[in-house]
Automatic annotation (TrEMBL):
Protein name: V-type proton ATPase subunit a
GO MF: ATPase binding; proton-transporting ATPase activity, rotational mechanism
Keywords in alphabetical order: Hydrogen ion transport, Ion transport, Membrane, Transmembrane, Transmembrane helix, Transport
One BP annotation, GO: vacuolar acidification
Phylogenetic placement of the source organism: Eukaryota, Sar, Alveolata, Ciliophora, Intramacronucleata
Length: 854
């Protein structure tokens, strides 16, 4: 079972001649079954032999991104690749048909992209320059037209200078200022400023001149000026005119105003001295604008012609050329990245790989395919080898569309060890169930079930659409199973949006005794399925449901954790770790059974008893468990028998003694045994260190240059292992493990009470929404009740969707996640493995073929 335990891995040596390295790696990367072992993880990629090729691919990918940006700006649609395997076959066929060496195709691609990119950059630069020129002309034209409207014809006439001094222009209109022309000489400042800076500019002008200036603005039409640095977005600018008294260019106010304009990056213009020059300048600007617009149109057509070539889908391709080029570069970069994991010595590349059981046959076939397809090229060699170092093999599970999401839940916490039991197999079943216990509701669970069914049935249509549900397709089976269990547990609790459903008829009937009405149970009547609906209509409903759900949560939690402890024992048997099996698993399962397993037994036994007419004799389970610790053997209110002849006290005393004996068994024997084994192992390694080296083909190639280094590494590993496994370290670790297990048993059991708490919260929220939104309209009746019901139903639907179907689903999901990560998996799961990273063109290309979300 490849999903119960990880696939069996084989360690191999791969030797590739350098002249055929590209061809061999190209074949191997299509197999999706090889994990390359990095010969030196500490060596930076930039210092490796094929780093230059990777840098070239990165540079070309940057240029491709710039071209894609231009295509998006010009609204050119890019057809993304939907079948990368077909594209890989096209690349392979294209390279085979060439008469040149396979790896030189990158050179051709590089030259082609460089040439087209340079042409596009030149045209884009011309476009930006033309836009800048057009913006300047529009601004100048607007200054002339708006300035004339603001200043009027009188400012074309030269002013008679009489005196120069301070003139308060604050609050004066332009006509009042014209009257002063005969006594004071006025200067003006005309320019263009961004509209968003206009208010700040006015304030600073006022403060600097102390009100001794007149300023007015007029907006330029918003669709005329474009921002060339922001994808040709429209810019709103304004023409401003500042009139202030003074003579000459060295005036203090003039200098201050010029500095303000520089700080705001304002474009300043000069106003013509007379009307004749004004009209001549206007005609000149208009002529230049027409020429600039024509040049812009021509340049734009040339740019679109370049981009149309990148947009085109060529024969035997399923995507645009720009996408095809990008994926080829991604493929090449990935190929050279994998080659960098191999050591280069002379004309040979060699390294280590992990292969799943049976994959060596596929690799041998691929190596023979290289020799057949490319005549004259030597192929690689594959040789099985014992693993080097102390690192275990990688972990690899085969997943499908159903199991992928649940395995990701496990992997997010940690990767299972090699051949360790995979929690993902059980998570497929237990995760939706625990979610359903917390989200139990017939109506809400059915809505979630319908969503899962819809995503599963119409997944192809949704995948090809732009629906927001497309992002939920990857977990559609998980949503379906969560909906099934929420729907099922809703029937167990008999809860339909806080309303009970009476399907089989209640086992209780109302019996009037005097002035008091009581509920009596029919003789030998048992409600067939779920909770009798009468319990949801009586005053002590909350008390009953609290007790029921709390005890049910404890039972589920104890069973779940005991199953995790059993899996620990199964792991110990598989790895033949008899110390863990005898001195950890056995005492742990006995301890847990004698404490919390006994508590579950008490709950089930109490449920099985008929307490009619003697409810006062029913003991409290919590009281029994507390007295079991504080007062062993003393049972004031026994669950079975009478106080005088009940054996319950003896049973509790025996359970407590067995549990206490288990604690030192967990704590002491294992560190003592491991310490003895480590001493023997260390002495044996010291005496036989030089006799345990096997020289295979890989070691012969590496013997002269790397032999000394490997021997020193082996010695460091052997000596380092003894140092890190001193008795003190082992004992402290075991003390921590023991304390964590004993105290964790209590806290973990209490943690499962979240199953009760969230289920209770869900039911109470649904009841509050029903009472506040719908119950009033139903109770009122008539026309007013119908109006209240109509309004209340709209509010009820919104709050139910927002609070219960969105927030509560996420809350229950996170709590179910925590129960698996902390309470269940820590009983057996080490989570210190590492994933099998298969060398796969299809995976890396598929990851880059999907369009990026904006």
């Amino acid at each position: 079972m490849n999903f119960f335990r990880s696939q069996t891995m084989g360690y191999y040596k791969l030797i590739i001649p350098r002249e055929s390295a590209w061809n061999v790696m190209n074949e191997l990367a299509e197999l999706d079954c090889i994990h390359f072992v990095d010969y030196d993880p500490t060596l930076p990629m930039i210092n490796r032999p094929f780093a230059n090729y990777i840098k070239r691919c990165d540079d070309l990918l940057v240029k491709i991104q710039l071209i894609e940006h231009e295509m998006k700006k010009y609204q050119k649609k890019i057809t993304h690749c939907k079948d990368v395997n077909l594209l890989i076959k096209n690349f392979k066929q294209l390279i085979k048909e060439r008469s040149k060496a396979s790896h030189t195709y990158l050179d051709e691609i590089e030259n082609d992209i460089e040439k087209k990119h340079q042409q596009l950059i030149e045209q884009s630069t011309n476009m930006e320059n033309l836009h800048e020129r057009r913006n300047k002309l529009i601004e100048h034209k607007s200054v002339l037209l708006k300035g004339e409207a603001l200043l009027g014809q009188s400012f074309f006439q030269p002013a008679n200078y009489v005196a120069e001094g301070y003139v308060n222009l604050q609050g004066k209109e332009l006509d009042d200022i014209k009257v002063l022309q005969g006594s004071v000489k006025f200067n003006y400042l005309v320019g263009v400023i961004n509209k968003e800076d206009q208010i700040r500019f006015k304030r600073i002008i006022f403060r600097i001149t102390k009100g001794n200036a007149w300023m007015n603005t007029m907006d330029i039409e918003s669709d005329q000026i474009v921002d060339t640095k922001n994808d040709d977005a429209k810019i709103i600018k304004s023409v401003f005119v500042v009139v202030y008294p003074g003579g000459g260019g060295s005036n203090i106010i003039t200098n201050k105003l010029n500095k303000i304009c520089e700080s705001f990056q304002v474009a300043k213009y000069t106003f013509p001295e007379n009307n004749m020059i004004f009209q001549e300048k206007l005609r000149q600007i208009e002529t230049e604008l027409v020429e600039t617009r024509n040049l812009l149109e021509m340049t734009k057509n040339q740019v679109e012609a370049y981009l149309d070539d990148f947009q085109r889908i060529y024969q035997n391709s399923n995507c645009s050329q720009i996408e095809e080029l990008k994926l080829f570069l991604v493929k090449e970069k990935y190929l050279y990245t994998q080659l960098n994991y191999l050591r280069v010595q002379g004309s040979v590349l060699y390294g280590s790989i992990w292969l799943p059981h049976g994959a060596d046959i596929k690799v041998d076939q691929a190596l023979r395919e290289v020799q057949t397809s490319y005549e004259g090229l030597p192929t690689g060699q594959l040789q099985i080898s014992p693993p080097e170092g102390t690192r275990p093999p990688p972990t690899f599970f085969e997943t499908n569309q159903v199991t992928w999401g649940f395995q990701e839940i496990v992997n997010t916490y940690g990767m299972p060890r090699y051949k360790e039991i995979n929690p993902g197999l059980f998570t497929v079943m237990t995760f939706p169930f625990l979610f359903g216990v917390m989200f139990a509701d017939i109506g809400h669970g059915f809505c979630l079930l319908l969503l899962g069914l819809y995503l599963c049935v119409f997944n192809k249509d949704i995948k090809e659409s732009d629906s927001i549900l497309k992002h939920a397709l990857i977990v559609r089976h998980m949503l379906l199973m969560m909906g099934v269990w929420a729907f099922y547990n809703g029937w167990i609790y008999n809860d339909f949006m806080s309303v009970p459903i009476n399907l089989f008829g209640s086992c209780y009937y109302q019996d009037d005794e005097g002035d008091e009405t009581i509920w009596a149970r029919k003789e030998d009547c048992v409600y067939p399925f779920g909770i009798d609906p009468v319990w949801l209509c009586v005053p002590n409903e909350l008390t009953f449901m609290n007790s029921y759900k709390m005890k049910l949560a404890v039972i589920i939690g104890v069973i779940h954790m005991m199953f995790g402890i059993i899996l620990k024992g199964v792991n110990a048997i598989y790895f033949k770790n008899w110390v863990d099996f005898i001195f950890e698993f056995i005492p742990q399962i006995i301890f847990f059974t004698c404490t919390f397993g006994y508590m579950d037994f008490l709950i089930l036994y109490k449920w099985s008893e008929n307490w009619d007419n003697r409810t006062q004799d029913a003991p409290s389970i919590i009281t029994l468990m507390i007295n079991m610790i504080l007062s062993p053997g003393n049972v004031d209110q026994p669950l079975w028998g009478t106080k005088e002849d009940s054996s319950e006290g003896q049973v509790q005393t025996a359970m407590l003694l067995i549990a206490l004996i288990c604690v030192p068994i967990i704590l002491l024997p294992k560190p003592l045994i491991l310490n003895c084994e480590n001493k023997k192992k260390h002495a044996h390694e010291q005496s036989n260190l030089t006799d345990n080296m096997n020289k295979d083909l890989y070691q012969k190639i590496n013997e002269e240059s790397e032999g000394t280094q490997e021997n020193s590494q082996l010695q460091a590993e052997s000596s380092g292992g003894g140092h890190h496994e001193e008795f003190g370290d082992i004992f402290v670790h075991q003390v921590i493990e023991t304390i964590e297990f004993v105290l964790g048993s209590i806290s973990n059991t209490a943690s499962y009470l979240r199953l009760w708490a969230l289920s209770l919260a869900h039911g109470q929220l649904a009841e509050v929404f029903f009472q506040m939104c719908l119950n009033g309209g139903i109770s009122t009746g008539g026309f007013v009740g119908a109006i209240r019901l109509l309004i209340g139903y709209a509010i009820f639907s919104l709050v139910t969707f927002g609070v219960l179907m969105m927030m509560d689903v996420m809350e229950c999901f996170l709590h179910a996640l925590r129960l698996h990560w902390v309470e269940f998996q820590n009983k057996f799961f080490k989570a210190d493995g590492y994933a099998f990273e298969k060398c796969s063109y299809a995976k890396v290309m598929q990851d880059n073929a999907a369009p990026k979300e904006e």
